[in-house]
Amino acid sequence: MTGVPEGGSESVTLDLLKHKMAEFAKERDWERFHSPRNLLLALVGEVGELSEIFQWKGEVPKGLPDWKEEEKVHLGEELSDVLLYLVRLSDICGVDLGQAALRKVELNAVKYPATGCKETSSKQNQKTSNFTDDTDTIIIIIIPPIYNDLPCVHLQSLSVKRLTCEDFFFLLCHLILEGFGVVEDNPKVNVTVGA
C-alpha cells in the first residue's frame, strides 16, 4: 500500500476501501487476526470511541457549526475507523456491503412507506408502546448456553395471542435496556432467567 492519496483526487468507493483494507492487512500479516468475531469486536470498540466524542455535547446541530476544526478532524478519524472495520468485516464475511445496503434501503421503503411515516413521534410511540393490548401475559424464558465462548440467548414466549415482529422488537429492546430483568413498568411482561 503506497499511502494516503494526495489532495483527495481519488474517487472513493466501498470496493476501493475493501481492496485497500485487504492489502493493508496482508502487508502486515494481520489476515490471521481478521476473523469475523475479532473484526466485530474491534468495530464495537471504535463505535465506543465515536460515541465518546458526542458524550457530553447534548444535541448538536447539523454541520457542527460550533465545533473547532480539530474536533471535526477527530470526528472524521473515528467515523473512518468505524467505516473501515465495517467494510473489512463485510469483506471477510463475503457480504457485498453496497448491494446489501441498497437492498436494505428498498426493504425499509416498503416497511416504512412515506405516506405512513409522517405521524408525530408521540403517535408512533403510542403504537409501539402498547404491545400487550391484545395479548395475555407474556412469559420470556432466557436460557444462556455457551457456544464458541459467546453467550447465546434463546427466547421462548408462552400464552401469546398475537405478537407482531414490531412488538417483539420493542419487547426485546425493553429487556435489553432493563438488563434482562423484569420490565417493571409493564405488569403484563414477566421475565424468567434460567435453564
Describe what you observe in this structure.
By secondary structure, the protein is mostly helical. It has two domains: 6-107, MazG-like (Helix Hairpins, Orthogonal Bundle); 121-193, no CATH class. It contains six helices and five strands. A three-stranded mixed beta sheet has the order 4-1-5, with no helix packed on it. A two-stranded antiparallel sheet has the order 2-3. Strand 2 (146-147) and strand 3 form a beta hairpin. Helix 1 crosses helix 3 (69-92) and helix 2 runs antiparallel to helix 3. 7% of the residues are buried.
Keywords:
globular, 10% strand, 195 residues, two-stranded antiparallel sheet, 48% helix, mainly alpha, 2 domains, Helix Hairpins
How is the topology of this model organized?
Elements: H1 14-27, H2 36-54, H3 69-92, H4 97-111, H5 121-129, E1 138-143, E2 146-147, E3 150-151, E4 154-158, H6 165-177, E5 189-193
Parallel strand pairs: 1-5
Antiparallel strand pairs: 1-4, 2-3
Helix pairs in contact: 1-3, 2-3
Task: Give me a quick take on this structure.
The protein has helices spanning 14-27, 36-54, 69-92, 97-111, 121-129, 165-177; strands at residues 138-143, 146-147, 150-151, 154-158, 189-193.
Low-confidence runs of at least 5 consecutive residues: 127-137, 140-162, 180-184, 187-195
CATH class of the largest domain: Mainly Alpha
Counted by DSSP, the helix tally is 6
Question: How many β-strands, per DSSP?
Answer: 5
Beta-strand percent range: 5-15%
Using the 3D structure, state the CATH architecture of the largest domain. Answer: Orthogonal Bundle
Termini Cα gap: 51 Å
Helix content: 40-55%
Q: How would you name the CATH homologous superfamily of the largest domain?
A: MazG-like
Mean pLDDT: 75
Number of domains: 2
Shape: globular
Find the CATH topology of the largest domain.
Helix Hairpins
